[in-house]
């Protein structure tokens, strides 16, 4: 069980007294509070013994209480038939529609013409945009 810091120890850490160059991690143990003194581990010289700190019931720790779980029922549309599972490409098509990709091709052509003053040859098409996204998906 780890001890808790009291307010004075926290305040001292926040407003350090100017020992900026000191690399030692020294903590004044006078500022520690024992959370559950009846469950503190006693040091033992036997290496084969287990530490009892791992076997403390949660009810003995501060803040833990056993309460019944009162869950809310799920809405009917939250539980779906496993047959509704789509492929990754179907999810991709849901957000990147052909209309959106056609708009991307059109604006690509417009951008090229605005910057160069001539029309792109060959013109960027829907298939070119799909290939572009496919290459990015494969490469990662």
Automatic annotation (TrEMBL):
Residues 13-35, 46-55 have a biased composition (Acidic residues). Residues 74-84 have a biased composition (Basic and acidic residues). Residues 13-85 are annotated as: Disordered. This is (apollo) hypothetical protein. It comes from Parnassius apollo.
